[in-house]
Each structure stands twice: as C-alpha cells, then as structure tokens.
Amino acid sequence: MENIVYNGNFIKVAEFTRENYTWEKAYLPDSLVVIAITKKKEIVFIEERRPHEDNPIRLKLVTGHIDKGESAIECANRELQEEAGFKANALKEILVNRSSGTINSNFHFILATELEVSKLPNPDGENTIVSVKKIKINEVRNMLKSGELIWNLSTLGLFKVFDLYNI
Description:
- By secondary structure, the protein is of the alpha+beta class.
- It has helices at 72-83, 137-146, 153-164; strands spanning 3-7, 12-18, 21-27, 31-36, 42-49, 57-60, 62-65, 86-99, 103-117, 129-136.
- The chain is globular and about 60 Å long.
C-alpha cells in the first residue's frame, strides 16, 4: 500500500515498502509537447521566462499539462494558442512516452499543422513568453547536434518529425 508523503499542485510523491525496502514513486500529470510546423517547414518555438530554473529564459517547444476531462489534442491547441498565438487546424499524436517506476507520467507528442493566428490569454501571464520564433526544420536538427538546443524529453518528438519530413 502506498503512503502519500507529498501532494502538490503538479507532483505527488508516495512511499511503499516491498521486500523490506522502502520505495519512492513520483507521479506527474499527463503532459504534452506541441511540435507546430508552418507552411514554410519551420518549427514554432517560444522563449519562455522561467525564474525558478537555472536558466531563467529558455528556448523551448510549446508544452503543457493536460487538464482533467481534456484530450491531448484539445490541450495541444489550447497551449499553442496561449503560448505562441497560433491555432492548428490539423493535429495528430505522433508519439506517447509512458514511464513507470520511480517517475510515473504520460507525455504526449502532438504534431500541429495548418496554423492560423489565434491568441488565448496565457494563465501564466503574458510576460512569461519573451518571444515566438520560427526555425527551419533542418536548422533545428543542427541546433540539436551543436547543443544550442538542449536535449530533453520535449525534443524527443523532433526526431519523429525529422523522419516524417525526411530531414
């Protein structure tokens, strides 16, 4: 039986004992990354202000947590409108990363195309987004190779996109 030792807004931590060893499990909400691609084969990135992180302004793809009762596709379009000011008329889930064990989460990768300008208010505050950048797909690949773009779970879906676009 699990004993909840912490239950915050985004992270829940539990402990349980099995075979005389105490294990810890962290649960994260279902999340996603939106890989939005323009007609010119550019990927939409945002520069986001994150004062609680080591690098307080970072270049990243649109990401977000899936609200209760919301599908990954619905969330992707909402987050894209809140963070980058675009709505996608075509959305497709291209990958799901499910992790279980010490860290437990479901992370969805959504390809968004047929973009049009459509802005929703950002609940994190409009000053959170420093800028929106559109970067050619092959340039994004070079940025990953050089380390200019940080490798993380969010960038995993880019490799699927490189395959889809033969880059």
